[in-house]
From TrEMBL:
This is Four helix bundle protein. PANTHER family: FOUR HELIX BUNDLE PROTEIN. It holds the Pfam family 23S_rRNA_IVP. NCBIfam families: four helix bundle protein (TIGR02436). It comes from the Bacteria.
Length: 124
């Protein structure tokens, strides 16, 4: 099984590939930059979480990654509808987005459970 650090890096590279395939008009450029920024930051949040000094810090960093994933999903939805892309263009990327949301959500829940923290915030 691929570790999450590698998987989030692969996700960032996929975001770059999606961005490169977008139309060069102003809508494609503006929405694409947003997708590129949020999609490539997920792995950075995960790496920061791995080096957290406490469970609370870990959960907060994972929460940041979840926020970026949700934002990436939003930009993909807008791109899909506004740019009339072929359905295959974003399908795999959106599937990976949803899988990473589920994985990071579970990571935060597990960390809270192990430490006795109460669930709250975006990771929870």
């Amino acid at each position: 099984m691929e570790d999450l650090e590698s998987r989030t890096k692969r996700y960032a590279l996929a975001a770059i590939r999606v961005y490169r395939r977008l139309p060069g008009d102003s809508v494609g450029r503006v929405l694409g930059r947003q997708l590129l920024r949020s999609g490539t930051s997920v792995g950075a949040h995960y790496r920061e979480a791995k080096r957290a000094r406490s469970t609370a810090e870990f959960v907060a960093k994972i929460g940041g990654g979840l926020q970026e994933l949700e934002e990436t999903r939003y930009w993909c939805e807008l791109l899909d509808e506004a740019c009339e892309l072929p359905s295959s263009h974003l399908k795999t990327f959106l599937q990976e987005t949803d899988e990473l949301i589920a994985i990071l959500t579970q990571c935060a829940k597990n960390a809270r459970h192990r430490s006795g923290m109460k669930a709250k915030g975006p990771a929870g």
